[in-house]
Amino acid sequence: MKILILNGSPRSQGLISRMLDIMAEEARIRGAEVEAIPIRKLQVRPCTGCMACRSRQACVLPEDDAQRTLQKIQWADVLIVGSPCYWGNMNGHLKVVFDRIVYGMMGESPKGIPQALHKGKKAVIVSTCSTPWPFNIWFNQTRGVVKALREILKWSGFSIKGVIQKGGTKQHPELTESDKKKCRKIIRNL
Ligand SMILES: Cc1cc2nc3c(=O)[nH]c(=O)nc-3n(C[C@H](O)[C@H](O)[C@H](O)COP(=O)(O)O)c2cc1C
């Protein structure tokens, strides 16, 4: 199994990073080939909205890390996406990457009907926020991140096999044993 981890947190020692590290470790123990991309290290220009990629199947902007990230997503059988909640949504840098690669995630028929380009692949979503549980869910904080990522992954053809939403990271900046178990369990169930 080939697993790609997209880490949307700018904090290399934050909770998203630590949960994704546990997942990577568990996946490697189980024989998976794992690659991880820390989004904070990518040089990616924002989408200009020209829509030329719809007919060209390629972005008009000079090649940067967006195209390279898409190649890695095409390589993977499983995509694990982690993002902290920023303003009720995914981190902006991560969103810029997904905007730039829309043509390689979801195609369009001549009549404009969406066509998933990653059918049969699996995905996992991990999100954190400082709003404590259960308000992170009720007030659409980590839930907002999950909703936004689901939208991208669903229309791209991924089947979501696991979701982790961890609220209250300001009061509880450490992972509990239960958080760690959840991370490993999701990988075992892939
Ligand atoms: C720019 C910015 C916006 C944020 N917006 C929210 C928010 O809307 N809701 C929330 O609960 N926490 C918000 N936070 C807090 C982060 O979600 C929280 O610190 C998270 O746990 C960081 O995850 P990490 O440790 O994996 O990087 C925000 C933080 C930043 C830096």
TrEMBL record:
<dbReference type="InterPro" id="IPR051796">
    <property type="entry name" value="ISF_SsuE-like"/>
</dbReference>
<dbReference type="InterPro" id="IPR029039">
    <property type="entry name" value="Flavoprotein-like_sf"/>
</dbReference>
<dbReference type="Pfam" id="PF03358">
    <property type="entry name" value="FMN_red"/>
</dbReference>
<dbReference type="InterPro" id="IPR005025">
    <property type="entry name" value="FMN_Rdtase-like_dom"/>
</dbReference>
<keyword id="KW-0285">Flavoprotein</keyword>
<feature type="domain" description="NADPH-dependent FMN reductase-like">
    <location>
        <begin position="1"/>
        <end position="131"/>
    </location>
</feature>
<dbReference type="GO" id="GO:0016491">
    <property type="term" value="F:oxidoreductase activity"/>
</dbReference>
<keyword id="KW-0288">FMN</keyword>
<protein>
    <submittedName>
        <fullName>Flavodoxin family protein</fullName>
    </submittedName>
</protein>
